[in-house]
Amino acid sequence: MIDPAHSSVTFSVRHLMSKVRGRFTGIDGRIELGAELESCTATASVATASVDTGTAMRDDDLRSDGFFDAESYPTLTFTSTAVTGDASRLTVVGDLTIRGVTQQVTVEAEFLGLDESGLQGEPRIGFAGRTRVRRSDFGVGESPVEGSRLVVGDVVDIELDVEAALEDVRAA
C-alpha cells in the first residue's frame, strides 16, 4: 500500500508569466512486484478535493466544475499497463483517468530502493517519477486568454515520490 505520509503528487502549470505549483494530499494505491519487471503493477488514486496550491481561492476554483469538478469526479486514477526498463530507470505506461476521461500516459521513473528490514513495520519500496499531460486531453478547465496572453497553460508537469509497503507477489 502507498504510504501517504511518505509520498507526494505535485504539479506545476504555467499561469501568465510564472508557474503555479501545487500538490494533492489524498493519495492511495499499491505497487506489486512480480517475478519479472514486466509483471509489476501500480495503481493509484488521488482525491481531487485534496488539491493544495497554498491559495484558498485558487484551490476552490480547481475543485469547481470548471476544472476538476471534485463533487462529480472525486478521484483521479492511474493503473499501469506496462513496465519496462531496468532496476534504476523504469518506464511505466498506464491509464490516467481525470473527469471520467482516460488517456494513456508514460511515467519515467527511478527506483529509489528497497528496505527489507521492516524498519517502519514492514518492508518498503520507493520510486520517483515524472510525466507531462495536457489539461485539454482530459477536459480540465478552459485555457482562458487575456488579450494575447494565455492565462493558464495547457501543459501540466506532474512529479511523484512514492513510498509503499512492499506487496510482493513473486511467490504467488
Protein traits:
172 residues, Lipocalin, mainly beta, eleven-stranded mixed sheet
Topology record:
Elements: E1 8-15, E2 18-24, E3 27-33, E4 41-47, E5 51-52, H1 56-63, E6 75-85, E7 89-98, E8 101-115, E9 124-134, E10 145-146, E11 149-150, E12 152-165, E13 167-168
Parallel strand pairs: 3-13
Antiparallel strand pairs: 1-2, 1-12, 2-5, 3-4, 4-6, 6-7, 7-8, 8-9, 9-12, 10-11
Descriptive report:
With 172 residues, the protein is mostly beta strands. It has one domain (4-168): Lipid/polyisoprenoid-binding, YceI-like (Lipocalin). It is 5% helix and 57% strand. It is built from one helix and 13 strands. The strands form two sheets. An eleven-stranded mixed β-sheet has the order 5-2-1-12-9-8-7-6-4-3-13, covered by helices on one side. A two-stranded antiparallel ribbon has the order 10-11. Strand 8 (101-115) and strand 9 (124-134) form a beta hairpin. The longest helix is centred in the middle third of the chain and has 8 residues, at 56-63. The model is unreliable at 168-172 (pLDDT under 50).
Proportion of residues in extended strands: over 45%
- Radius of gyration over alpha carbons? 17 Å
Largest sheet: 11 strands, mixed
End-to-end separation: 17 Å
Care to give the gist of this entry?
Helices cover 5% and strands 57% of the residues. The protein has one helix at residues 56-63; strands spanning 8-15, 18-24, 27-33, 41-47, 51-52, 75-85, 89-98, 101-115, 124-134, 145-146, 149-150, 152-165, 167-168.
